[in-house]
Specification:
alpha+beta; three-stranded antiparallel sheet; 5 helices
Length: 245
């Protein structure tokens, strides 16, 4: 039996949203599961009293902490690395789960010896230009602004918080804004992975309720094809117009 076309009917429960920086967090538990599946050698601990789930690398040097009960502007994710060059990463509630995955997933695959000579902003200059992000420099600080002026990426290499991405939508408060930060010693591969995801122009999948209320007006929304159930009944044919007498 032939399958109906993808646009045969549409699901009201899921939508396509762009740009992703106004799409909301989405179901970040799917990111946690994907990370665990990617890194089977990592240990998992769950603390039901605090709602914290912790993934730890086999050598104990890297930890991901997922704060299930957090509310904005608290962190949803925190990551840390101990050793000669310790670093931290923080992702607040409402940070799109795609960015969380882009930041944390490479940590399960990075080599022991990291190339700290990578310069993501220099390497990705053409990508920023193609995505129409505007660049401004303030001394040692470099700032990129999204085309809709709602999201900024800043890099200040000599400060402890070297990388920061955040929304700045008008009239939104701390309960709906989000930010992602990386400390100075964080592997540059992580910043590159996050930036690559941030600049992608493909829409992301959300339920309507997952878009923060005050960011909804800035989102481009389209229905998503859904073949999970039977197609709707066909419409009755329109009768031909009667002849005039």
């Amino acid at each position: 039996m032939d399958q109906p076309p993808l646009d045969h009917y549409l699901s009201p429960s899921r939508i396509l949203v762009s740009p992703q920086h106004v799409a909301g967090e989405g179901n970040s538990l799917t990111t946690l599961k994907a990370l665990k599946d990617r890194a089977p050698g990592w240990s998992l601990q769950s603390h039901t009293d605090t709602g914290e789930i912790c993934l730890t690398s086999p050598d104990g040097a890297i930890t991901f902490r997922y704060h299930a009960l957090a509310t904005a502007p608290e962190p949803r994710w925190t990551a840390a690395h101990t050793g000669p060059r310790p670093w931290t990463a923080t992702l607040s509630c409402h940070t799109p789960r795609e960015l969380a995955h882009a930041l944390l997933d490479p940590l399960t695959r990075l080599p022991c010896e990291l190339d700290h000579g990578i310069r993501p902003l220099d390497e990705m200059g053409e990508d920023f230009h193609a995505a129409r992000w505007r660049r401004t420099a303030y001394g040692t600080r470099t700032v990129f602004l999204s085309p809709d002026r709602l999201c900024t990426l800043s890099h200040t290499p000599h400060e402890e918080t070297a990388w920061r991405i955040e929304t700045q939508a008008p009239h939104s408060d701390d309960s709906e804004r989000w930010h992602l930060s990386l400390s100075r010693n964080a592997p540059p591969q992580l910043a590159r992975s996050v930036i690559h995801q941030l600049l992608r122009d493909e829409p992301v999948i959300r339920h309507p309720r997952e878009i923060p209320h005050r960011l909804h007006r800035y989102a481009d929304i389209a229905p998503i094809a859904d073949l999970s159930g039977p197609p709707p009944p066909p419409h009755a044919p329109t009768p031909p117009p009667g002849r005039s007498r």
